[in-house]
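Lab notebook, bench 4. We co-purified these components, and the gel suggests they stay together. Before we commit to crystallization screens, I want a quick structural picture of the whole thing.
Request: model the full complex, all chains together.
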Amino acid sequence: MNPRIFDKLKTLAEAAKFDVSCASSGTTRENLGKGLGSTSGWGICHSFTEDGRCVSLLKIMLTNHCIYDCAYCANRRSNDIPRSTFSVSELVELTIEFYRRNYIEGLFLSSGIVRNADYTMERMVRVAKDLRLVQRYNGYIHLKSIPGASRELITEAGLYADRLSCNIEMPSEESLKLIAPDKNFQSIYRPMHYIQQGFLQGAEEKKKYRHAPRFAPAGQSTQMIIGATPDDDRKILTLADSLYQRPAMKRVYYSGYIPINTYDTRLPALTAPPMVRENRLYQADWLMRFYQFKVDEIVDTAYPNLDLEIDPKLAWALRHPEAFPVNINTADYEMILRVPGIGVKSAQLIVSSRRYGRLTSENLKKIGVVIKRAKFFITCNELPGLTVQETGPEYIRKALTAPKKKKTDDRQLVIDFNE
Amino acid sequence: MLYFIYDKTFEGLLTCVFDAFFRKEFPQRIVGENVQLPLFSESFRVITDDTKSERVLNALRKKISKSALQMLFVTYLSELEGIEIVLFRYIQKALTSETCIEMNFADADVLELSKVYKKVTREEENIRQFVRFQKTADGMFFAVMEPVHNVLPLTAKFFKTRYADQQWIIYDIRRKYGLFYDLNTVETVHFERLDISPETGKLSPEKLDEYELAFQNMWKDYLKAVTIHQRRNLKLQKQHLPVRFWKYLTEKQS
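Here is the predicted assembly.
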């Protein structure tokens, strides 16, 4: 074993760490022969780093040399950092050995751009090809597609990878041009479009021929940086929504901007990444994907930014008190989903349990509903308490955002010295 | 108060159900052998009988779905104290009820079992997540675990398909048995003596493959390298990676 592999691993893992995606879900790849590895539905997280993020895939770069000079990126051309490059065989060996020890669920390969997009993409595809064809590896492979890569290479990548991704980086083209002058929306949308076409074509052929090769069965994902430019949440979520309309798009990731290149004056001077805003964006994303919310219900021209104090579902409920209280025993599933404090699982349990009898708040509590929030928005088989109709939305906002009081022991004598 | 005493097998529990219906006496508690019974309690010793348990199973098959039956077995593996009587009441309700009770989560026993089921399958997932194999000098992949619930049998199929081309052993230190895959089938094994470090679960270096320690170090380095220090959140890490697993995790050992 090459002793330099330790340094390469450290440098190139460090270079790849800002990519958010680590999902190993969305596809099934059975191990039919005596090969290595399997991939099943949900994905598995194998470890968690000190920042609390999951480690499911070996997230690594093929090289951190790059000809581009994007302002937000640690690997930009003008940064003076150690650079190295993996050979294809080194990376294949590392993946296989980590996989055999149950450290990882698969490989997430990304790369800095050397020479040109196609040259880089070709080397990445070779890693995936070696893993699948030479090592007979059935684990997960996520390949980043390089902006500006050709259709042929993307098509080949799709044959070996489970998921392809192409990062859109910024919520608007002006921001992208300002911060990453070498990139434009066209160079990003084009590979995205190739992936989508390949995905649809693969699905079509699968219908006709059982053994037709699958094309990136877990679809594609993308990522944008939040808080590096003045774009508002409405812009971000509208873009995300339009991306989700595309058939192969499975996930849009939001990455709170982390100030790395503090010397670059095009970027805002932040002391900490905008974690709360990032969290609210993910909550809004979930509302669009699992709670049947439309994007203009979450943000509109009157409220272009998400409320940082309360989550977007509660914010919607407080803006629309006329929709509440919801009767748990008779309301539609769609309406129960909209009650703050009731999640998808609780809503499903409610709908299936209420066929056996009327539900009380005691039942709801046991099912897992957060009564503290939900009580203002529901009626069940009891005398109704104070709901949003009686209290008004402002009271609820105060009640739910009030800081927790410190517990005092009232058996203890407190002497007031009037200080 | 009526106690049933049984031999801590799933068949034994099903026999309890048969005997209860046969005797028209329903227990308040079901306990294993060698349990100190309280004063003034009646007890009945259930002798496990395969024909009886098979009859209960057949009756259940007519009343509940396959997945619910699987759930009964999985929750039984939780080995939680008092889980027997919850299972007993669930089976009793399933057999006597006119309608299917599976989805009635307003019923305390149904809800309780669904919660225990979640716990056990969560533990099973934890095994899949946190098993760390060490490659031995003879090419075997070896790992130890201490799961709270007896979930090793549930993971056998998963590891068998995933690592079909390598021999492996996963050993449950708490229950003193393990699964061994010999490239064809998975069998249970029991070792009288286990030559591992009690603190880390690692084999001694001379028994390991020559590159094993290198890969362990690479894994530790890798995890350090992918941490974003600006986002440090140790509480979140503990939430996802419970401290009770740290003992045998390569990346948490110095």
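The first strand of chain A starts at residue 47 and ends at 48. Worth comparing against the SEC data before the next meeting. Chain A has a mean pLDDT of 90.
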